[in-house]
Design brief:
Length: 438
């Protein structure tokens, strides 16, 4: 998808509900919209409520012929219009110089924000390239597994060892890509997401490198047994008893397929066979419980469930990462190893990248960067501001803002399409199609 380039509003045309005002009517509490392109002024937004006298003076110094005001958003009414001030004297000239210096500082800060955003976009683009090439390789390996399982495992192992290193070097971007993979049911893309999430959790659990390599391969192959099952059964959320038996057979079928490759480690095979076991004994195929479930399977189970919540077959039920994390922690905790689940929450953050949130000042945004260790509720958030071109979109670091905080996470289904397209533009990429290309 190409990025939009928001044009400046028509200087002669107010939006619905707006009135025209001039600089003499400005004061703190008055809403104002600046009819100029976003990069041509020093303020964070084109449309905002004036916070203090300094902002009012800075706007006046722009000498715009007219401004727009939405009275419904004003905390106080605009001042009565008055005649233009007389030419400035020495004191006015000093104030002009002060405002010019302040404007220059604000513009420099704005350019720095744009640079940070550009850097983030670059990291996401790089991670996406790795993600797509890895999904393509995994897709090819899975399709060829029945013909030459040993060669397929070698291909998968290479993905686990090499490409995952790039994804885990930038876990925030990896998690955003998983969140933006909505509307996709591709086997390879799901396997890659589960591998990435399982390895993030495995690193948090301080698994040794050899164990991480086995975990990565097991996660990539965890659903290999689904290849022989009809997609209508796999995608159904209301399987009958016969269909459920067929669905549950994929664990043993996948284990049997993996055994054919030879020389696969027990933890790898355990992840394939037991990733649907539940800590409370309610899973399948063997209804194992507690520590009887192999560690690799417990790790993959959490990663698998998280990705299925974020990217379910029925896209109407898709959750944001924060919703999925909350569901695991509050509703499904008994199904998983509590210690590992706690580590998973720590690895992902309370508001994982890709989550849509509402801030305490009412603005809507997408989490794009993890919160620092000591401030788990203060991640980096990209703000929905349609007047700002997407490639220059605004990022707020809540850890340094101090006043603004996250008010609540939002459900994807409750947000308009244009908002999601702005905040999560990659969600419309057909990952399955791209993964299947040769």
């Amino acid at each position: 998808m190409t990025d939009d380039v928001s044009a400046a509003p028509d200087a002669a045309t107010p939006n619905a509900g707006e009135i025209c005002i001039d600089a003499s009517q400005l004061r703190p509490g008055v809403h104002v919209r600046l009819p100029v392109p976003w990069m041509d002024h020093q303020f964070m937004f084109n449309s905002f409520v004036i916070a203090d006298e300094e902002q009012a003076r800075l706007i006046a110094a722009m000498k715009l012929p007219q401004l727009f005001c939405d009275p419904a958003r004003c905390k106080v009414a605009p001042l009565p219009q008055r005649a233009a001030d007389a030419p400035a004297g020495r004191e006015g000239e000093a104030e002009k110089a002060q405002l010019a210096a302040l404007t220059a500082a604000r513009m420099a800060e704005k350019r720095e924000r744009a640079r940070v955003m550009s850097e983030l976009r670059g990291r996401l683009d790089k991670a996406q390239e790795h993600y797509i090439s890895s999904a393509r390789e995994v897709g090819g390996a899975i399709r060829s597994f029945s013909v030459n399982p040993r060669a397929a495992v070698e291909r998968v192992a290479k993905v686990s060892e090499n490409t995952t290193t790039a994804l885990l070097a930038d876990p925030d971007s990896a998690i955003v890509l998983i969140a933006e993979k909505a509307h996709d049911d591709g086997h390879a893309a799901h396997s890659l997401s589960v591998m990435t999430l399982a390895l993030l959790l495995g690193k948090q659990a301080k698994l040794p490198e050899q164990a991480l390599r086995a975990l990565g391969i097991g996660a990539l192959l965890h659903d290999i047994g689904k290849l022989a099952i009809r997609s209508s059964i796999l995608r159904s959320s209301e399987r009958n008893r016969h269909e459920e038996v067929i669905y549950q057979s994929h664990c043993r079928a996948g284990h049997a397929e993996a055994l054919r490759a030879g020389n696969l480690s027990p933890p790898l095979l355990d992840a394939i066979l037991h990733h649907h076991e539940r800590f409370d004994g309610g899973g399948f195929p063997d209804r194992l419980s507690g520590s009887a479930i192999p560690l690799s399977a417990r790790l993959v189970a959490i990663a698998n469930r998280f990705d299925n919540l974020v990217n379910p077959p029925d896209t109407r039920r898709a959750m944001s990462p924060s919703e999925a994390l909350s569901t695991l922690w509050t509703r499904e905790q008994k199904a998983f190893d509590a210690t590992l689940l706690q580590l998973f929450v720590r690895a992902m953050g309370i508001y994982p990248p890709g989550s849509i949130v509402q801030l305490s000042d009412g603005r809507i945004g997408a989490v794009v960067g993890s919160a620092p260790a000591g401030q788990p509720l203060s991640p980096k958030v990209m703000i929905y501001a349609p007047e700002v071109p997407r490639r220059q979109s605004i990022i707020i670091d809540l850890a340094s803002e101090g006043v603004v905080k996250i008010d609540r996470p939002l459900r994807l289904q409750e947000r308009p399409a244009e908002e999601l397209d702005y905040l999560l533009p990659r969600r419309k990429i057909n990952w399955s199609y791209m993964a299947e290309q040769k």
